[in-house]
Amino acid sequence: MAEWTGQKTLEDVLDAARQWKDRCLLRDGSIFGSGQLWTRENFARLKEAFVDNPIEGDESFADKLRTQLKDASPHVSQLAAEAFWLLNLFVGSGNMRPETKRDRIAKIWELSGAELPNVPTLSNEALIGVANSGAAFITLVWKEFRYLVLLMLAWKSLDAERQHQLLNADDPWGFCKWATSFEDGDARAFRHMILFLCYPVFFERICSQGHKKRIYVTFRSKLSDQTDPFENDQSPCGLDKAIYAIRQKLEGEYGTMEIDFYKDPLREQWQPEGTNDSAPIDPSPVAAGHVWIEKTIVKGRTDRTEGTYALGHALWSPQKAKGGQDIYRFMREVMPGDAILHLTDNEGFSGISVAAEAMHEFEGVAGTEWGIGPSYLIPLRDFVALDPPLSREMFFKPPFRNRLVGLIDAGAKNLFYNREPSLNQGAYLTTAPQKLLEILDDAYVQATGKHLPIASGTLPPTADGSVLNRSSSDEMQRILDRLQSRDLHFSPEIVSNYLLALRTKRFVILAGLSGTGKTQLAMAVAESIAPKVRTEIVSEAQVPVIEQRSTQLENYRIVAVRPDWTDSRGLLGYYNPLSKQYVAGSGLELLLLARDEVLRANQENRRPYPFFLILDEMNLAHVEQYFAEFLSCTESNQPLDLHQDADLESGAGQNERAIPRRLPIPRNVYFTGTVNVDETTYMFSPKVLDRAFTIELQDVDLRGFGKPIEKSSKKGEFVLVNLPTLGNYQKPRLNDWKSFEQLESGAVHTILLDLNDILTPYTRHFGYRVANEIAAFVCLAAQHTDGTTDSIWAALDIAILEKVLPKFHGTQEELDESLLAFFSFVVTADRNASVLNWADLKDRWEVTDGRLVPKLESLAPRLPRTAAKIWLMLLRLHRQGFTSFIS
C-alpha cells in the first residue's frame, strides 16, 4: 500500500483529505465550516476573478490573488482560501511550514470579512504535508492553482452519477484519465497530489513525472511484457499503473507493504547518484551533512522577510556575478540535509536551517537587487532562530579573533571573513569547516552559556559526521583503547584510513602480516560503533515479568572463508528442494538483520545502524567465484537471487522466518576482507581490486607495543577530527568529482589527471569509477580532518596508494618501465620530469613510518606513502624478478 510512508502524521493528512473528499468533492460543502462553498457557481466566479483576470508584475502569487479577489463575494474568497488549503495539503514542511500555510490561508479567508475558524483540518498535524513539492511547484504555483480551479469547475459541472462513476473506490484509473485530460494536466504537480490524496493505496506520494519515469526504468524488469501497463499505454496514467504493479511485486519480494520509493532500500536503487532534481523530503527531520554560511541582508527587503524567498525559507542567488565570475559556485554543492548558518545584516548569526533540496535553476526574483535572470534556488526547512543571536562582537573579540585568524594561517579557504578579521564583501555562501564551528560555538557558549543548535543537537544528527560533533575525539580514542585492550597496536592514521575507506566504498581489503590484528581491527570498529538497544526479556516465572534491558547491538558477523568455496553458498546458504527449506549462511543472516534494521529505522525516522560482514582469510578461495554476486549487486544495485519458492518467501514454508526470493544488499551493510599471502592463497583479480580500498598493514611498532595510543599530532599525519557516520551508504557521485576539482585551487585534481596520462601508455591507467572514488575519499577527508593542505594531500596520497597501485603485479619485464614512471611522478609531481634511473635511486631514500624519506640532500617525495610502496615493490622486482602490491 502506497499510503505507508513511515511518517506518524500521515494519517492526519489523509484524514483531512478524506473529509474534503466527502464534504467538498462529492458534496458542495466546506472543509472549514458548515456553509455551501464548493459549488459550480462559486468556482465559475473564482475562475472569472483569477483565471480570466491575470495580473502581470513582480508581486508574489499570494499578493496577486488577494488583489484579484478584492471585489469577490465572501463565499468566493472563502472558497479560494479552501482551494489554497487543498493545493498545499500534500506539500511538506520543507517547502512550506504549517504555520506559513495557516497564515496565508487566513489572509485569503479574511477577505470575506470573517475570521478563519479554528478547526482540526487547520492543525499542524493536518498541514505538515507528506513530501516536498519541488522548486518548480513553488515558482509556477499560479499554474497549479489555475489547474485546480479549472479541474474543480469541470467536476462540479458533472452530474452526480458521473461523479460517483469516476470516483470509484476500487478503480482509480477513470478518475486518473479524467484529471489528466485537462489542459496542462500531464505537466502539473497537483495532478499527482490529488491522485495520492484521493487514492493513497494506488498512487505514490510522488509529484514528479521525471521521478516516476526513473523508478519505472529501474524496476520495470520485475514486470513481463504482458503485465507491464506502460508497455501498451504510454500515458501518465499508464505510467502510474505500471508503478502500482511494480509496488505489488516489491511488496511480495520484501514480505511487507511498508515500503516507500523515497526511503531505503528502494531509493538507493533508483536514485543512487544523488542527482540535482532531488526527491521530496519527509517533513520529519532528516540528517544534516555539510555546514554552510549564508551572509545576507534582510532589513528593508520584503523578499527576505516574507514569502517563498524569505530568510530560512530559501537560498537564492544569480548563477554568475555581473562580471561573469563564478562566485556563487557553492550553491551547486549544497545537498539535502546540509545545515545553513544565517549571518544577517552584517551583524551576526541569527538562525540556522536545513537544506530541503539540492539546487534548482530558476528565473530569479523580480523587484530585488539581483532581479530576473539565470539563478539558483535551494528550498530550506526547519528554521531555528538563535535567541540571542551570535553577534560579530562576540566572535571577533579575543580570544576567538586570534583563533579565527589562525584558521586562515593553517590554510583554510573560502571563509566568510578575512585576516583583519572582518566580513568578506560579496561572499554570499561560504564553507564552515569543523574548526570554524568549534570557534563559533565556543564564542556562543561564553556569551550565552549555551551551545549553538548544531552543537547541542537541536538540529537533526549528521549524515556523515561532518557537522560539529564534540565527541569525535572521544570516539577515536575509544576505538584505540578497545584495540589496546586486545593487545593490538594501530596508529590513529590506520584507524582513520579504514573508517574513511568504509565511508567511501563499503568494501575494504585489509592485507598484511599474519598476527597484526586485521580481523580484530574490523571487530573493534564495529563494536565501537554498535549502539545500545533496548530489549524485552520475559521471565519464565508463574506470573511472567517483562524486564527491559539495554544491550549492545550485535552488528557484525565473522565468516571464515573455506578453501573449497566455489560459489556463494558459503555466504548465502542454499535452498534444499527436498525439504523445501532454505539453509541460511552467516552472510545472509546478517543481510536480513540489516534489512530489518533499515525498515525499523524508516518507521522511526532515523538513520539505520551499520552492520559489518568480516571475511576472514578472504583469499583462501577464489574471491571471484564466491563473492562475485556481492560485487555485482553492490555496483548495480540489483538484488541477490536466492530461490523461487513462493511459500518460503511468504513465511508459509518450512523455515522459521520468511526468506525473500530476491534480496537487495541493504545500504547499511559494509564488507571487510582480511588477507594473508602464502602458498595456500590466491591473488586478487583486477576486477576485485577495482571495487575495493586495499589497506596494507605491514608496519609493526614493537617499541610502542603495550603503550597507550593517543591521537597523533605529527605533521603530515592523516587523522580524522570528526568521525564519518556509517549506516546510510551512498556511492560516490558526480558532485564529488566537481568538488574535487575545486580543492587546493585544482592542484590535487591536476595531479590525478597527470598520473592517469602517465600510466596510459603502459595500459595501467584507471577508469571513471576509481577516479571518482579517489575524489570522494579526498573530499570526505577535507570535511572530516582539519581541512589543511597537508591533510588533503595526505588523503590524495592514501587514495592513490590504495586504489591505483594494488593492480600492479607481474614480472620485471612487465612492470619495470611503468613502475619507474609511476615512482618518478609521485616523487616530483611533474608530468614532464624525466623518468628516474633505478641504479641512481636505490641508495638515495629509505622508508620510515610508511613514508619515503630522503637519506641525503635529496628531493622529498610529493606523495610519500605511495612512493614508499613503489620503492619497496621496485626493490623486490629487481631482486626477485617479480613483484606485487600485496606481499
Care to describe what's here?
With 887 residues, this protein is an alpha/beta fold. Helices cover 41% and strands 14% of the residues. The chain contains 36 helices and 22 strands. Strands 1, 2, 3, 4, 5, 6 and 7 form a 7-stranded mixed beta sheet that branches. Strands 11-14-17-8-18 form a 5-stranded parallel beta sheet. Strands 9-10 form a two-stranded antiparallel sheet. A hairpin with a 3-residue loop joins strand 3 and strand 4 (348-355). Helix 18 runs antiparallel to helix 19 (434-448) and helix 22 (492-505) packs across helix 32. The longest helix is centred in the N-terminal third of the chain and has 19 residues, at 236-254. The chain is globular. Mean pLDDT is 84; it is low at 272-289 and 455-472.
